Structure to design on (273 residues):
């Protein structure tokens, strides 16, 4: 089964997103748990969450991949900012418990000069604390392009976080634009990159993908998403990805520069590759 979807607006609630997803041919989706560039969260609505869970089951959707705010930097050098980010993470996971079994993906963060090891240490501490109540949610660390002082541009960094947390509620979301920009050549050697992922992290930890083409060339460390087939990855790369046996059954989320009609077209395109 191919589970393909895109980012949807959460403003009308979770059940409304299930309905929208269905209309555009999606059978999974992503949404921001709060304002992506701020920290405000929506009012909780348990009845909406319960109705959405029932609809997801009825319609045979794959797992949802919620996305944490971009502003949540768990490894900033400033202690009070770090505590704030950790509080946001704890609150997000508590909220995700209303959608049991779904995924919560986030950007590991930027260490802004403290060094990779200190950054990894901060992220692991925050995750340990946030996972302590044992909510029914798996957090996914997103593979990053490695721009600036971003953590997560190398599989080894994600593995170090996973080991330091020591929980099986931690997985990885592979972003195709980010890994290619970060120097993993999924265009020429998808199998080799997946083998490397398996060797370093373990494919059992790979839970979801973000499908994005890239505006920039290989290893540019830039992170600018492009529509499917129009960037440096190209359509054949996506054909290989959506049909790869090691990736079968995993939710694949578009984060391409599109509105709903554009997403609908890309979902249809990916389904017939
Ligand atoms: Fe992301
Ligand atoms: Fe992404
Ligand atoms: Zn990106």
């Amino acid at each position: 089964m191919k589970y393909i979807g895109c980012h949807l607006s959460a403003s009308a609630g979770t059940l409304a997103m299930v309905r929208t997803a269905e209309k555009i041919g999606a059978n999974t989706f992503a949404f921001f748990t709060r304002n992506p560039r701020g920290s405000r969260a929506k009012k909780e609505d348990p009845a909406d969450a319960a109705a959405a869970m029932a609809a997801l089951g009825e319609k045979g959707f794959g797992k949802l991949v919620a996305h944490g705010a971009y502003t949540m930097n768990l490894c900033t050098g400033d202690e009070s900012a770090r505590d704030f980010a950790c509080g946001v993470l704890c609150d997000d996971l508590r909220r995700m418990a209303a959608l049991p079994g779904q995924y919560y993906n986030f950007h590991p963060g930027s260490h802004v000069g403290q060094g990779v090891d200190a950054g990894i240490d901060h992220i692991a501490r925050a995750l340990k604390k946030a996972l302590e109540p044992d909510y029914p949610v798996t957090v996914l660390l997103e593979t990053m392009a490695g721009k600036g002082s971003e953590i997560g541009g190398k599989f080894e960094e994600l593995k170090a976080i996973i080991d330091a947390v020591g929980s099986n509620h931690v997985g990885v979301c592979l972003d195709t634009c980010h890994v290619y920009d970060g120097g993993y050549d999924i265009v020429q050697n998808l199998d080799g990159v997946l083998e490397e992922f398996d060797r370093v992290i373990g494919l059992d930890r790979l839970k979801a993908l973000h499908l994005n083409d890239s505006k920039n060339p290989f290893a540019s460390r830039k992170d600018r998403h492009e529509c499917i087939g129009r960037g440096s990855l190209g359509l054949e790369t996506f054909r290989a990805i959506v049909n790869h046996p090691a990736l079968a059954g995993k939710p694949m989320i578009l984060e391409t520069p599109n509105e709903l009609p554009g997403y609908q077209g890309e979902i249809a395109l990916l389904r017939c590759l």
Observations:
- The domain at 4-272 is CATH 3.20.20.150 (TIM Barrel).
- The pocket of fe (iii) ion (ligand 2) is lined by residues 142, 175, 210, 255 (CB under 6 Å).
